[in-house]
Design a protein that fits this description.
The chain contains eleven helices and 17 strands. The chain is an alpha/beta fold. It has a single domain, classed as TIM Barrel. The strands form five sheets. It has an eight-stranded mixed β-sheet, sandwiched between helices. A three-stranded antiparallel β-sheet has the order 3-6-7, with no helix packed on it. Strands 1-2 form a two-stranded antiparallel ribbon. The radius of gyration is 22 Å and the shape is globular. The termini are far apart.
Length: 387
């Protein structure tokens, strides 16, 4: 049930900022708890632009949550479709289908597992779920629910200030699903869970341990949030038995505040990746950069150099694709030839492996063979050094 709201005029202190708007909501008679209203606006030249078309109203005591569709879906200075920018042919993909695709989908649904493949509208879902050229299906499992506590302006995953608590059976269910698929490499990722004390690091660790128990030789990559910069949370996950620690820096330094939620940050992401590398000898680290958001070549080189300075091993680069008109506008469709250039440049400055292409994503099936080789080499060096 949605009650009439009385808006108060917000104060604006910066060119682009997020803030809460106090409102008055008539409460149910038995309500003595906090009711909240959260929305994000951006300010530009005297106009307020909404970053979302939905407003969440939550009444804790009545356990009610409602959404109001905003009257205006006018995009901000960085959003909206640009009719002059056409999607090139190399980005067009067929709709996913096939018997193997349906089997994986049914398996995930039965075990109540979420995937970033679906939630983030990944263009490679058909290739991965159908097994690519080797017939072995794989998916990137998204832990900790399907609702994120952050509102990055490139991401299609739904958001809420108070998502549902984690499913305690998720680590075990995930391990069972992966064991049944017969894969030997799996990627686990998650939404940001700033509402949890450890950001979800312990839940990640339990899942890794459950998988290793069922299938000791499986290689596990965890594509994580920044855990609010909590390095103890990073260490907990690193020592859970995972093989690759991945965290995406997403974009160049200048565009961080435009692209990512204000709680994320360039230096914070570098700190997380650096700590993961130093917390355990031989740990493989990985990151990803989206292109097409308005970055310059020099800024991309600077970002790649900063990642190499903290000894990140693996880098992926892919084309940013706008999921809805309310998300960030694509500034450029980078050509396949330019992606080839970035792959060669990255490997020339010391990355052990670079996956670079318009449809490459941070959890990218085509690169798993190379990653497995790197992990095995790292284990061999660590073993020889200790004996």
């Amino acid at each position: 049930m949605i009650h009439q709201c009385l808006f108060t005029k917000p104060s604006i202190s910066s060119y682009s900022s997020c803030f809460s708007i106090p409102i008055r909501i008539p409460k149910p008679l038995n309500c003595n708890r906090h009711c909240s209203f959260d929305y994000c606006f951006h300010h530009n030249n005297g106009f307020l632009y909404s970053s979302s078309a939905r407003i969440s109203i939550t009444c804790e005591s009545a356990n009610l949550e409602a959404a109001v569709v905003s009257k205006s879906t006018r995009g901000g200075p960085y959003t909206g479709r640009d009719p002059n920018v056409k999607k090139p042919e190399w980005l067009r993909q067929r709709a996913p289908q096939g018997e193997r695709f349906e089997e994986v989908k049914d398996s995930l649904s039965h075990l109540k597992l979420n995937t970033v493949c679906e939630e983030a509208q990944c263009p490679n879902i058909g290739e991965c779920w159908n097994g690519g050229g080797d017939g072995i299906a794989t998916a990137t499992i998204m832990l900790l629910g399907d609702t994120c506590t952050r509102g990055c302006r490139f991401c299609a995953v739904k958001t809420s200030r108070n998502p549902a608590p984690p499913d305690p059976m998720e680590p075990e269910n995930t391990a069972k699903a992966i064991a049944s698929w017969g894969v030997d490499y799996i990627v686990l990722t998650s939404v940001d869970r700033d509402d949890l004390p450890d950001g979800g690091s312990g839940h990640f660790a339990e899942t890794v341990q459950a998988m290793k128990k069922l299938k000791p030789h499986i290689m596990v990559e965890c594509l994580t949030s920044d855990f609010r910069g909590d390095l103890n949370a990073v260490a907990t996950l690193v020592h859970s038995g995972l093989d690759v620690f991945a965290h995406n820096i997403e974009t160049v330094k200048r565009l961080q505040r435009i692209v990512r939620d204000p709680r994320a940050g360039y230096e914070q992401s570098l700190s997380v990746l650096k700590h993961a590398k130093h917390s355990k000898e031989g740990m493989i680290t990985k990151s990803s950069i989206m292109l097409g958001l308005g970055e310059t070549d020099n800024e991309i080189k600077e970002t790649m150099a900063d990642l190499r300075a903290i000894d990140v091993d693996i880098l992926t680069l892919g084309q940013y694709l706008q999921p809805t008109p309310l998300h960030l506008t694509v500034k450029e469709y980078v050509t396949p030839e330019k992606f080839t250039f970035w792959k060669e440049f990255g490997e020339s400055i010391g990355f052990r492996y670079v996956a670079s292409g318009p449809l490459v994503r941070s959890s990218y099936r085509a690169g798993e063979l190379f990653v497995k080789t790197i992990v095995k080499e790292s284990y061999r060096k660590t073993y020889n050094a200790s004996h």
